[in-house]
């Protein structure tokens, strides 16, 4: 709800814990934030006030008038929040002239860590199932161990005639659950409860089921599958499955507030009854097999005879690991109609969805004979004969099966407990398949999309789209490396290099808040971060340079983007412990010991010496830990880490940098790390920048970096005064380049620069994903460089913007970003010797604008000479630009075009 006043900045987009209207939060002092919009130039808030009320409408917290013009969030500090309670809150923003505007929202608490859980963990009798044995270390593949069927659990209950005032389901599983109430699905979350290290923490979800409860008999009906808990995940043949347990378990409490004031709780216990489901198996990597011969229609509705179901077994009564989910859930976010359905055999069709993505298909089948099978296989690409290529999936079968039952007629098959990374599906077993009968269902954490980018080069627009699809396909519970093969792990370096791009594309604050718990949780007691989080047997625990460092880099960047200091507070001890760990084992400040598997600049065409990569990251992590300490007011720690960072930088220069600025190895990534992390004194930095430019030019111009260097190429070249080279790299089409895959039909970003070449065909199937986001970390520069929409260095939460377009040879570009402060927009266009630049700055922010022009005298704003324009202060001129500072509002600059006719 928003109260409009034409004269004050208007709050909107209210969030609690970075989520809109969250149900079931466990944070006792949640962050309440809002954004501001205004149509008036110079409109800025003078003060704000937040008022929180309980369900009875009584105030539980009133901040009073806060004199903080740039406030965009407050941390709740009122009366202790009660569990399972709804609170409404309102923010009022007042402008300097006294005009005000307000908006309101709500949040609801979950169990708030309360000890009043009464549900037991329940399961089907494992002896009745062919379970996967937990493998011993050293034991070989589980492939022949078979998978156990998913199980069902049900619990009838009576409800009075009067509808309930409120009903909430608090639920989780060791495994995956889907709950139904009276035949209707509860909520729209997918693959719940998601992946955490279940030994340390298990997320529960809260669902509002008030509308699903009916008078008389009701029934709660759950399906439980293996998921990350007991199914297959990862690539280690010695331990592909059963990482945490052998069979799934459910824990749930339904709380009903009846109209007569009674509070009733229905919890998982031995009154629930269980039975094998018709899902013969359901596994994230293998796929799902629905055998309708075993279906028991009506099982999820009242009046079903469940006498032959067995009582559930209690497997535990512990609740201490339960915490409310903090990330936006995975949802079926969109649907893709097939681009083409091709008949390739008597009962065989190949479906092209036109887009590589993560999810599943929904297939309508008619008149499937009893015992007949429809088999769906998934793949990202086709081989040279036009057939589905699956070698790169390694041991992930990614195959779904439906077997006909007694019912015949029409059935809709949509797997629930698996997902695949694919563009193509091969459907076997149907004599005919219409496009209308098959749909691609896209799954990912439903992070609100915040970024838009467009420009005059369709290739760059497609690159931006592919990068977005890489993000969508890999933000599934944790940030994964890839969605298709037997891996799908939360690799730390992939996540840190891609984070700046991810943060522009979408609001990922809550998503990363959730995953950072896993990153911290995986850290060893002596301070060592891991390579993947959650930790997984088979992947070396000891974090490699650039991988372990993500435990420091991620919180810092999230703090800068969202202005939420808790990213630093919550991670600070872990950050210090990591730096201390590296330091303790490398007292001479050259990081050689405890480098884990040292992946270096992973998959780089030109490798960078390992010690250079390690030294640069050691300095970077130490420097950011020092900065975090300053922000948090931990001045002693700050001084200590600042001194250490300076010594690590000096050591780096002494050991690896020659007096002429050459860095050992003489590679792009070596220079990129040193320049981006500020490791070099000014004179050497200038020489290193020249050497970097020379190397880029000599390569084509082209990139020769792997994962760690790639995202730094364009921004560092830009900072070194060579945006022209950044553009040249962006628009290169030979391998290696970002556009090369587009020439070969890519709709996502590839793991390798040369995943496929006409000369060599596919890269080694042992490691060749077509949907890996790491190389897509160039995406941030499309917003920040090409369009010119960036946050100023030193700013947090987009308080100070840096608008600095780099037109290159393009005719126009524009970007929009929904920041935590409100909407930021930049658009520029060159035509007829003129450059037009439009900029929107939200209230409570300011911007430094660099107007590209050959003639600073020519710059006008809304038709007036820029020096006379309201809200604009000219700062000076630089090579090819006029710099000015602007307050909030919308601006239209025009200037003589710096770069002559548009090609
Ligand atoms: C690969 C993963 C990931 C990378 C590691 C080192 O298996 O796909 O992208 O970070 O190796």
UniProtKB/TrEMBL annotation:
Membrane-spanning parts:
none
Q: Which organism is it from?
A: Actinomadura algeriensis
> Which reaction(s) are listed as its catalytic activity?
Hydrolysis of terminal non-reducing alpha-L-rhamnose residues in alpha-L-rhamnosides
Q: Name the InterPro entries on file.
A: 6-hairpin_glycosidase_sf, 6hp_glycosidase-like_sf, Alpha_rhamnosid, Bac_rhamnosid6H, Bac_rhamnosid_C, Bac_rhamnosid_N, Ig-like_fold, Rhamnosid_concanavalin
Taken from the record, one Pfam family name reads Bac_rhamnosid6H
Bacterial alpha-L-rhamnosidase N-terminal domain: from which residue to which, for each copy?
165-333
Q: What does the UniProt keyword field contain? A: Glycosidase, Hydrolase
* Gene Ontology MF terms in the entry: alpha-L-rhamnosidase activity
What positions does the domain Alpha-L-rhamnosidase concanavalin-like occupy?
Answer: 343-444
The residue ranges of the Alpha-L-rhamnosidase six-hairpin glycosidase domain are: 450-786
Q: Name the Enzyme Commission number(s) assigned to this protein.
A: 3.2.1.40
Protein name in the entry: alpha-L-rhamnosidase
Taking every annotated instance into account, which residue ranges of this chain make up the domain Alpha-L-rhamnosidase C-terminal? 793-862
**Superkingdom in the source lineage:** Bacteria
